[in-house]
Design brief:
Elements: H1 3-12, H2 41-50, E1 58-63, H3 73-83, E2 88-94, H4 111-115, H5 118-129, E3 132-138, H6 147-155, E4 159-161, E5 167-171, H7 176-192, E6 197-201, H8 214-224, H9 233-237, H10 241-266, E7 271-276, H11 280-286, H12 291-297, E8 302-305, H13 312-326, E9 335-337, H14 344-356, E10 361-365, H15 369-375
Parallel strand pairs: 1-2, 1-10, 2-3, 3-6, 6-7, 7-8, 9-10
Antiparallel strand pairs: 4-5
The structure holds zinc ion.
Length: 395
């Protein structure tokens, strides 16, 4: 264990006095451009203390594990966010074919029997520490679904097919039963738990070469009032291509619209959000993810483009464009990929860029023990010391 890690552990557990914090020199390989490896512990501490804080912003992490940080449980996982000045968590508690709570709609993870209802566990910790919970759904992607469930869907013609006829373990979004499955599973969470929001992810096609299944042909022909002689060739190269692209994109958008509309009827204060690809202009064409249109239509309450980049100037370039696209219609919380960064100094730099460029907060990917013990504790020396946005529903 490096001295920095040991120190970060002390910070994580809140057993230090701020006056005695000493940040030791980091491994040069983990050092960002913003700080030299030769800098002393006191210089590193001075670096973190010199970074301004910003009150009233949204500070969250995604948590890919449905059980909190491995070995920590939800109480300790959520507590570490509170300790370090964060106010929200986006935990991945359901997929297209798997739920980590007793769902009546999706197959339930076998771990739920042993570890209990993870939405309830995470929610309890969030309420205890005053942290917002936005339940993260991985849409369409069946990679974690039980084998039998995937096979059943494949046999029923409900999974995607590529241009070249390859089967994909993704729900075909135009299939009416898939649409209902995706919608109803998200609404089940809204209905059964007092969560602050639901969060779309993988709300798109896997790539530009899908879906060209027989069901998509039939449903497109019906919607467009045309008959395709050669499919998929005709919708790729003929005059139908533009119409097909619009229809294909609508198969994704209609799910966002339906969940947003129905969830707000169930719980008017619920927040609808999405993790989206960074370049809206290209992703609306390639993967059918027209997120700027979702912002403009009012379907989303906030949006989180995944700007994971080890290059600060490319990160800034993405955020700059996104601020223009979102245009303050809803809050913009850029996603920062800690796995691409050299260390906490670079995380600080990217947080400051979100502030300088006019975003309303940020979401860090991904909450692991490393993030909790090495990246987050230095932030509270100043960067996250100003009070964040109040949790939804608080006075
Ligand atoms: Zn299809």
């Amino acid at each position: 264990m490096t001295r920095l890690t040991s120190l970060s552990r002390l910070l994580a557990f809140g057993v230090f006095s701020a006056a005695t914090v000493v940040l030791t020199g980091a491994n040069p390989a983990q050092t960002s451009k913003d700080i030299s490896p030769a800098q002393s512990a006191s210089e590193r501490e001075a670096f973190f203390r010199a970074q301004p804080s910003k009150p009233g912003e949204f500070r969250a992490t995604w948590c890919h594990s449905a059980y909190g940080i491995e070995g920590w449980g939800w109480d300790r996982t959520v507590a570490v966010l509170k300790t370090n000045g964060f106010n929200a968590i986006i935990p991945n508690l359901l997929w297209a074919g798997l739920a980590h709570y007793p769902s009546k709609i999706l197959p339930v993870s076998s771990k739920v029997q042993e570890h209990g209802d993870q939405v309830a566990e995470c929610l309890k910790a969030c309420r205890k520490y005053g942290i917002e919970i936005h339940v993260w759904k991985v849409n369409h992607n069946l990679s974690t679904a039980p084998k039998e469930f995937r096979a059943k869907l494949r046999a029923e013609g409900r999974t995607q097919k590529s241009k070249s006829g390859e089967d994909m373990d993704w729900l075909c979004p135009s299939h009416p039963e898939n649409f209902a499955l995706e919608r109803d599973s998200m609404l089940e969470v809204v209905r059964n738990y007092d969560v602050d929001g639901v969060h779309f992810d993988y709300i798109r096609y896997p790539n530009s070469g899908v879906c060209y299944c027989a069901g998509c042909q039939e449903r497109f022909e019906k919607a467009a009032g045309v008959k395709m002689e050669k499919f998929p060739e005709d919708v790729i190269t003929s005059q139908q291509a533009g119409k097909f692209n619009d229809w294909r994109r609508e198969q994704i958008t209609r799910l966002v619209r339906a969940v947003s509309t129905e969830a707000r009827k169930l719980k008017p204060r619920i927040k609808i959000s999405a993790a989206v690809f960074r370049d809206w202009e290209s992703c609306r064409q390639s993967i059918g993810q027209d997120w700027k249109a979702w912002v403009e239509a009012g379907y989303l309450d906030f949006v989180c483009p995944m700007d994971y980049d080890g290059d600060n100037s490319k990160f800034a370039e993405s955020v700059r464009k996104q601020v223009t696209w979102v245009n303050h219609q809803i809050p913009l919380y850029p996603g920062i990929g800690s796995h691409k960064l050299s260390g906490p100094e670079q995380l600080v730099r990217q947080i400051q860029l979100t502030r300088e460029l006019g975003a309303d907060g940020f979401v860090v990917f991904n909450l692991t023990e490393k993030l909790a013990t090495e990246f987050l504790p230095p932030l509270r020396l100043r960067v996250t010391s100003a009070s964040p946005k109040r949790p939804a529903g608080s006075q």
